[in-house]
Amino acid sequence: MSKEVVIVEFYANQIKSSFQKWLVLFSYSIIAMANVMQLVSYSPIWESAAIYYGIPPQDLQWIGNMYYITFFVLAPFCIKPLLVRLDISMHLIGVISALGAWIIWIGGQSYLMTMIGLFIIGISDAMILIVPVCNQIVNNQVLSEKWFSIYQRLLATSLGSFFQYIGMAFAYGFSSFYFDITDEQSIVNTKINEMNLIIAIFNTVGAVLLLMFFRNRPPHPASNSDNIVKDTIWKSTVKMLTQEESVIDLLSLGICKSIKLLKVIGLGWVYTTIISFELYPFGYTQAEVAINGTVYQISGVAVGLWASIKLDSQAKQGIQPDYDRYIKIFTSIGMITLILEAFIIEYLEFWMLLFVNFAMGVGLNSFYPIAIQAYIEKLYPASELVLVTGLLCLANMVGFVLNYLIVLPEFEQFGLWIGCLTITPGYLYILLNYKTKYRRFEQEI
């Protein structure tokens, strides 16, 4: 074979591999987006959805709580399958997610069938959330580490993670504009059935894409990290839960993402629900609440992707990515905005509220993938999946508690203040004491 033919085949394989990894990420992102839609689709029509199911409005909170509960109960058992065969695990996730969505649609106004469907979706979500990290977060981390180089890993993690925010924004916005406050309950019932059918179809499309495009790993390792022997699941768990600094980080980057990060992440997930409860009493329309919720989600995605590209660029130049500066800036924006909103929300004009929720999205959402990478750096070579699972388990427990409290009559008017109190300890730790140790970066660069 001539030298020219070898060169042509080499570049052809490079292009094919590069195209394939983005297809893998795209197929994962679609199912992640579809899987989370049911979580917020009823938020704008809370009272009408409760009537649809024939239950008290407070009981509707278990739609969101089912996601939180299934994750921190089942996620630890999902680590091993993802490590052994990522592709088969993801194919199964797609099928389970679609099955759960179809059960909800077929069940119609049966609250029991809906909860069964949500439980099944929750099983798939327990794996989906951590996949982006298999070098990042549980799901996104594994995906980004196997398929993307050190120079693209944070961007891949961000895309995999942020598609869930896009799914939440889409479902929330669609529900807000599809339903009219003047609709009779019979029309609402028909529209809910149609909405659940759309979500089921979307989940099915995601499952088909996973079956078509998702593969276990590329033909050649994307980074040195994929070739390095990592700590076992047990050793990684012990390291995460016994090292004092790790435990504090877990409680703040989970309160904020490791001790602080966890709480902030948890609050980020339930803030969309908090918006609904806080704004309606001040006379905001359903459409205005939806626009604010969408701005909150999308601003975090846009700024988070920009920050990820900047940090990946630093890594490409051989410079340690400045995770700490971005984490502290973003969490400070979120904390300051949250306190400001709690004090002046009743006096804000609509356009000012949009600005506040834009800043809130930047503060509570943008730092998420960055914090995950920083946390993994500190405990490397601990298993990324174990670390992200631990982090997200804590975040889900916080989300469960907050989601439960804010719908109680005694607490619903204090949703923002509850959020402030929840993240303050973690935020102060991150601001004053958090520092990334670049163990993985120094190994790979």
From TrEMBL:
Domain of life from the UniProt record: Eukaryota
InterPro entries: FLVCR1-2_SLC49-like
Localization, UniProt: Membrane
Keyword Membrane belongs to the record: yes
Annotated TM spans: 22-40, 60-79, 86-105, 111-133, 154-175, 195-214, 329-348, 354-376, 385-408, 414-432
Membrane topology designation: Multi-pass membrane protein
One Gene Ontology CC term in the entry: membrane
Main location: membrane
Keywords: Membrane, Transmembrane, Transmembrane helix
Protein name from the UniProt record: Uncharacterized protein
Protein species of origin: Paramecium primaurelia
